């Protein structure tokens, strides 16, 4: 068989940009302010809630875009799924149980993002309740933790609404100001 030159794969650069954008979302979710100031439990479940809030804000921003934006949303969702699979493996879940766990995690993640979407269009209390329901029990009351998270999420969506699609597509994102911090711009290489 003769050698053929490599075929240009136009989706590869987008995957890299989605990877950078997802990395920026994860970096934002890891900021200590969420756990130290807001009171989110610094547990796997608490970190999952903060990650899902930041991911929701970006997916919410992208939902009004054309096919390119929808593709970026799908790439982010795929990257999130891959990340969750990695976490399960790091927790010691066996290869045989991964598919079952992933199906359950996919259902719960989709339900959580859908709950945020429904609550986002409602009065503030509905969003607080949706976030409180997702938070792990223990520590401060869930509603006391959820209220500043709901405020942050609304700020995040507003900031992202002003963000040009090209900036997001390049893998860079600006998040709103957090207590004790200025606005954060994140890019993950």
Describe how the helices and strands are arranged.
Blueprint: H1 11-29, H2 33-36, H3 44-62, H4 67-90, H5 98-120, H6 124-134, H7 142-161, H8 165-169, E1 172-175, E2 184-187
Antiparallel strand pairs: 1-2
Helix pairs in contact: 1-3, 1-4, 3-4, 3-5, 3-7, 4-5, 5-6, 6-7
In words, what does this structure look like?
With 189 residues, this protein is mainly alpha-helical. It is built from eight helices and two strands. It has helices at residues 11-29, 33-36, 44-62, 67-90, 98-120, 124-134, 142-161, 165-169, and strands at residues 172-175, 184-187. The protein has a two-stranded antiparallel sheet. The radius of gyration is 18 Å and the shape is globular.
Order of H and E elements: HHHHHHHHEE
- The mean pLDDT is 79
Number of helices, counting only DSSP H or I runs of 4 residues or more: 8
The end-to-end distance, rounded to whole angstroms, is 38 Å
Rg to the nearest angstrom? 18 Å
What is the global morphology? Answer: globular
- Structure summary, number of beta strands: 2
**Biggest sheet, in brief?**
2 strands, antiparallel
As residue ranges, the low-confidence spans are: 1-13
Structural class estimated from helices and strands: mainly alpha
- Biggest sheet strand line-up: 1-2
The tally of structural domains comes to 1
Summarize the amount of helix as a percent range.
Answer: 55-70%
Beta-strand content estimate: under 5%
